[in-house]
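Can't attach files on this board, so I'm pasting raw text. These are the components:
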Amino acid sequence: MNTIPLTHILFVSTALFFIGMYGLFTRRNIITMLMSIELILNSVNINFIAFNKYLHPANLDGVFFTIFIIAIAAAEAAVAIAIIINLYRNHKSIDIEDAAEMKY
Amino acid sequence: MNAIILSAILGVIMMFSGIWVNNKATLRWIALAGLLVLLISNIAEMYGYRIWNVNVHNMLYFDRFGLLFNSVAIGSTFIFVALSGSDINRVGKYAAEYYTLIFFVLTGITIISVYTSLLMLFLGIEIMSIPLYILTGSDKRNLKSNEASLKYFLMGAFSTGLMLMGITLIYGATGSFSIEVLNNPAIAQGVSFLEITGMLFLLVSMAFKVSAAPFHFWTPDVYDGAPGVFTSFMATVVKAAAFIAFVKLFDARMSYSSAVVDWKMLLCILIIATLLIGNITAVFQQSVKRMLAYSSIAQAGFMLFAVFSMNEMAKEGIIFYAVSYSLATIGVFAVLLKMKDFTFEGYNGLAKSQPVLAFANTVFLLSLAGIPLTAGFFAKYFMLASVIQTGHYLWMVIVAVLFAAVSVYYYFRVIQAMYFKTGEGETENIHPGFKTGLIILTVIIILLGVAPNLIINFLYF
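---
Top answer:
Structure tokens for the assembled complex are below.
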């Protein structure tokens, strides 16, 4: 059976990373921006697993790092959702353009 | 190890004491007692007494540098809570939770000052930042506070993403997370393109965390919008901790890969841009709180010199800079929080109405500007001397001194308003204990300005 080469997996993860970054910069909906951040973190997860499996299979460092990232991402999402709900209560909107109290 | 475990336990204790204790003043005393215990346990570890012996698999290394910074961070937090505790209690109903989150931030700080594995760097930075997002938004009814916490979260999560991308690339190139392997030229021979890219990602993400110039946009808004007390904490202890992580990360790493990338030039651009934007924009501010936010960017430019020069003197200097900058800024913010009006006009005539506050504030501002006989002078001196020791980019020293002169302008505007302008200088009710605290802080700053070795000697004994 032919295995999938490493570069293919890296293409996927890099594409995800830049899709996430594009979403973070262009979207105006805060929930979508949060999803973009999750995309960035998950692209990193794929990267870690791929590097671990293909380049350094002797130990499982990369896999363990992935578990830590998933846990931290969950904690971050919990805090982010709380912030967004709080913002929604005050602004009645989750558009980032409406959150413009401070000007230079 | 003492401080890491104990601060997490104390955070949980603090959380439960919020259920049983209803009096906010008592909660503050509990927090102060907890911080004192934490400080003593950390100093005990510096002398070799460990409460817990945990096998950390070389992911953490408890050297004198990291432990001394832990003591500095915990000590500054102690002074911060002692001076501004009543202001923390005024932010909202949930005083116990605010102290809890401060303890959790300290857990993160104590991890990132002793890490040797990039995994621990990531965990420490996240443990430090997530409670800060909550503290920034803790003034729930205030729109500015909500917006600040949202901006802080987005920028923090984005820079964490960049950092993780950098770590994966370094992992792919070297197969290890240990910064020692990466720092060792014998093992990491033949620097690969992958690793350089990873290090560039890490450089950018750390520049975000310490708010260096092209990546500083979030700082003024977040510092302005957050409740003043937590701005004081963010701008001092947390920022200094991010710098310690930065210094440890790039310690000696740059020397062996310098054939491929000119790290010194990159950092030089960062430093000059940070000094320029921080100082010039601070001149035009009307609110003292916002001016302090920009001045913290400018001070970050000075602290970046430690990352640039990377020698023994820089390591001594960054610790000393952390002490002097943290103490002075905590003092300035403590006075600012007692003012009714946060603009420069609000300070008019403060010397008449509150002479002690005005005098202490003057000393803190002089220390921030780097006038001799205050701690800030030696802090800047160590930074610039370390650059001269490296012998590269000496013109940067002259530029830095010029920008320090610019910074004198906006710090002295406050002093001028306090002493030479007529006005009410309205403040909240000042407790006599607060004045005593300010005087003690003033004495510490002047003492360190005369004898900086009091701190630095702890690095070697």
